[in-house]
Structure formats: structure tokens, C-alpha cells
Design brief:
alpha+beta, about 35% helix, three-stranded antiparallel sheet, about 290 residues, five-stranded mixed sheet, Outer membrane lipoprotein wza fold like, wza like fold, 10 strands
């Protein structure tokens, strides 16, 4: 019994020694279980620390264009074509109406924002050129002025009755601009210029040039500031063949003259011959 009591402390010391030696070996990390370290995204100094830093995949570049995926390519092409056509056509007509000078028989409307008692629509400009408006004695003279100029005049007149009046004057119907087409066309005469016209467009509205008309010798007679008429030659034949640009625009009062061609002269000679034959028969062969 005494020998066993002596061996017990020795066994306890050996057990503790084994435990001390085995502990450092357990602290070695297994390379297969080691996790890869990730670098946190750097944050801008000027960025709000409360806002998370966006990921690279979530950022939108300025030149990124969002294209709808549910619209066919053909439909998108048609939309782009319509936009381009409107961009080309709208200034073409807006330029005419913005520079249009009012005259007799034109129809305009005067609108004062939020003031129905001062507004008036469907005003037919009389030959005197003076239109009547509420609280404006004697009316406003509008002949020879653009709609913007008339709006500015009305605004100044109403400024003593309304605080900062917003006035808009619109041209409802253009009736004072006229031009004429004479010579060998389908329907010669005087016509209204309700929009900007080229010479070829005016000829088309007049029924086109007849077979007896000379398309290469057409002239536009335009009255100058000194009262004299200036002749502007227009080779419509070259325009139709694509050899010249259709860029001769009419102004109010222009006269388009379409002279006759060789066929016209032949028909004139034939007509004179027929008249001479009829006169010879009628007079019994005296002539």
C-alpha cells in the first residue's frame, strides 16, 4: 500500500508533462482550413461614411444607354426616323409663321393668361389693320407686325390693369400673303400663301406646267424696295432632274411666269393658219 501511494504523484507529473508537450502542436493551423482574406473597398474621403460604398458592378457609367428590350428594332428605327423628320420639318414652317407680317383678312387670337375678359379669339384683321381689345381705346394697329410684336404691344397696354400680364398672340389663319402664277400652267391665277413655298411647290398647286410650257425658262418677278420688278430665273427642268437645288422660296407678291416652248409656238402658228384659211373661205377667196 505504501508503494502505490508513492507512485501516484509520479504518474500525475507524467500526465501533466504529456499535456504540456502536446498543446503547442495543436496550435498549428491546417492550410486546407485557412480562409482567404478579402480586401475591403476603399472609401472616398468626401463620401458620407453612413452611405455604403457601391460595388463596381452596380455603378452606372455616364455613357451607358438604356435600350428597351421589349420594343422591336424596326419600331425603334421608325421612331427615330419620325423624330428626325419632325426636327427637319417643324423649323421649316415655324420660320414662316414667326416672321409672318400680319395683314388684312388674317385671323389671330389674343390670350391673356388667367384673364378671360381681356382675351379674344378669332379676330379677323380689317383693312384698316386696327383690332379692338378690351380697355384699349382705339384698338391696336397690327398691320405689318409679327405676332410677337403685337403680343409685346398688348402686354404694355395691359400692364396698367394687370400685374405682370402674360400675353400670347397666335396666327390662326394666314390670308394676306398672296402670289400669282401666270403662263402655261394648269390653273393660272392668284393664290394664298398659307405656308412657305418653293417655286416647284407653287407650280404644283397651280396644276403643274403644261406640255406647252418651257420649264427651263421660268422666271419669278419680285418687287424691290424702289418699286422696280426684278427677274429671278428658275430652271425647273434642272430641279426635276436633280441637277439643281429647289431652294428658291417665294415672298408675298411674287409673280411666277411660265413662258411657252417650241410646241407653243407651233400651235400658235397652226392657229393663225387655220384663221387665215377660214377668213379666205368666208371672204370668197378675195385674200
Amino acid at each position: 500500500m505504501k508503494r502505490n501511494n508513492w507512485l501516484a504523484p509520479i504518474a500525475l507529473i507524467l500526465v501533466l508533462a504529456v499535456l504540456v508537450i502536446s498543446v503547442p502542436g495543436q496550435t498549428q493551423t491546417d492550410p486546407q482550413k485557412t480562409r482567404q482574406r478579402t480586401t475591403a473597398p476603399t472609401q472616398d474621403k468626401n463620401q458620407d461614411p453612413k452611405k455604403p460604398t457601391p460595388k463596381a458592378a452596380d455603378r452606372l457609367e455616364p455613357d451607358d444607354t438604356a435600350k428597351p428590350t421589349d420594343v422591336p428594332d424596326e419600331t425603334q428605327a421608325n421612331r427615330m426616323e419620325q423624330i428626325s423628320e419632325e426636327a427637319a420639318v417643324v423649323p421649316y414652317y415655324n420660320n414662316f409663321f414667326n416672321t409672318y407680317r400680319l395683314g388684312p383678312e388674317d385671323v389671330i387670337s389674343v390670350v391673356v393668361f388667367n384673364q378671360d375678359r381681356y382675351s379674344r379669339s378669332g379676330i379677323i384683321i380689317p383693312p384698316s389693320g386696327r383690332v379692338s381689345l378690351a380697355l384699349i381705346p382705339g384698338g391696336v394697329f397690327v398691320n405689318g407686325k409679327t405676332v410677337e410684336e403685337v403680343a409685346e404691344i398688348v402686354k404694355k397696354r395691359y400692364d396698367e390693369y394687370i400685374i405682370d400680364p402674360q400675353v400670347t398672340v397666335s396666327l390662326d389663319k394666314a390670308s394676306s400673303y398672296r402670289y400669282s402664277v401666270m403662263g402655261d400652267v394648269g390653273q393660272p391665277g392668284i393664290r394664298l400663301m398659307s405656308h412657305r413655298l418653293t417655286v416647284t411647290e407653287a407650280l404644283a398647286e397651280a396644276g403643274g406646267v403644261l406640255q406647252t410650257g418651257n420649264k427651263s425658262k421660268i422666271v419669278v418677278l419680285r418687287r424691290q424696295s424702289n418699286g422696280m420688278l426684278a427677274s429671278i430665273p428658275v430652271n425647273v427642268s434642272a430641279i426635276y432632274k436633280g441637277k439643281a437645288a429647289d431652294n428658291t422660296f417665294l415672298v408675298p407678291g411674287d409673280q411666277i411666269v411660265v413662258p411657252g416652248n417650241t410646241l407653243k409656238k407651233v400651235q400658235t402658228i397652226m392657229g393663225l393658219a387655220q384663221m387665215a384659211t377660214f377668213a379666205r373661205v368666208f371672204t370668197g377667196g378675195i385674200f
